[in-house]
Design a protein that fits this description.
This protein is an all-alpha fold. The protein is built from 3 helices and no strands. The chain has one domain. The chain is 88% helix and 0% strand. Helix 1 packs antiparallel against helix 3 and helix 2 crosses helix 3. The radius of gyration is 15 Å and the shape is elongated.
Amino acid sequence: MNRYQELLDLVKSFEKDFEKFFEKNNKTAGVRVRKHMQELRKFAQEIRGEVQDRKEEGGE
């Protein structure tokens, strides 16, 4: 479950910028939100690769 906790921590780290952008319309925070979402996408791709590798190791 370590990877799951990493995902939760990553998303939690975005909270302040999301609040600043969506609640206070801070445009600079919007740039950071986009950057955070790119990080999330990269992390998701890593996990997808790990899942695929484990599936293949299992013989399926």
